[in-house]
Give the backbone structure.
Amino acid sequence: MFDRRLAGIATGVTVALLAIARYLVERMGPSGWSWPVLMLCVLAAAAAGRGLLGVRAVDGEQEGRPSRGFRAGVWLLLVGAATVPNLHGLGIGFLADDFGLLRAARMAEGPLDAARLTPLTIFHRPVCQVVWWLGLQLWQGAPLGYHLFSLLLHAGNTALVYLLARRYMGSVYGGAMAGLLFAVHPVHVEATLWAAAQPDLLCTAFSLSSMWCVEQYLSAGGGRQRYVAVGGALAAFLLALWSKETGVALLGVVFVRLALAPGGRRWARAVGVSAGYALALGVYLGVRFLMLGEHWMGRHGTELNAWNAVFPSTSLLLTSEFFFPVHRDLFASLLSPYLLVAAMAAMAVGLLWWIRGLHFVSWQRVVLYGSYLLGPTIPVSTAGLLIGADMANSRYGYLPSVGLALLFGEMCARRGGGWRQSRVVGVVTVACAAMLSVWYVAPWRQAAGLRDDVLSAGVRVVERLPESPPPSTVFFK
């Protein structure tokens, strides 16, 4: 039976761990995490798993098929949630790396030439480079076109999260809540508003498409259908790798999904399909070596820096940012610091409310959601990159947040109590996340204003130069 006492203790420990993770890492840095801290995290996760999963061997009941009108309403809601909160950021224009990517695209003589270019010596992302080249052909390189394309990608990723969540949980409501929170989450502001962050959007799109093909493989009846599904999955995997390097994590997610799927010959399926993914990964690494030469592993080397220190802190911080998405610099500059504490306390109470009423969650799905989170954080850990107090680098949390969105959908679908109360709190949670996303666009609009001021000052300087100026250079930082 479900152990409510242990669930309550585990819930309190888990929420407290998430709330203090950011404080610990900011005070001590990544090196402050050591084996004792890692073991503490493992024990807390084990206690939470035991308390929340119970001992039942059967899963929750599957929902009936909803009406066509209801499904159409869910799709409209998902698309609107993914686009509307970001509409007031369409006028931001180009910032930072955008100018370098646009210049590289202008140097290309065609799509194949664009795919061969390496604007930065440590990156080989031909899909993104071709996208920027196509932007020159379709909308003459106007920033609005790239921003609209980013919104389209984000909406497509939201749809894929919904489809996968509905398949995993057997719940339209749980899938819809997972998709809605993914659509409006504040951690995604950087990825959806900054044109140079399109690699994260594209990598996620192809990664989720590959996982959807894996689902078609599992449900296929005949051998031909399975071969087609596997072929599509491998093609999407290669495109994910050629969009951004974090796509390599998909190999582990696919293995976990196939190994834990119901039915016979699970391990044979998992090993066979994963071998195909490994072969595709080998092709990618070979092409990368030919293109980048000695820089094929990037500037960070092949070993994690202090593996036991950086890896757990990165995963925990991403989890903390997902459930406590607080732009601390913005709170401190525009609002009272006490409001920051109040906001985090309210988020902690909300998370506690969601977890406390859970009935039963399949441990196989919890492991699957964890693989979505942990896999993409390994490359991020290698680089030693963390989300800052100003939400900088939050684009690195775009792909891993899929697993956390799935976990939130699971909490919505499996929570007991009053049906109406759960729905109301779910809507309020998504609405609060959407309002935070809208608010977090403000620094990006300020950055666009600073860019315009700097460029205007540069134009005035050039206009005042004599007709035969002395050999000199004007620098802008």
In short: The longest helix spans residues 143-169. The chain is about 70% helix and 0% strand. The two ends are 63 Å apart (CA to CA). Residues 404 and 423 are 19 Å apart (CA to CA).
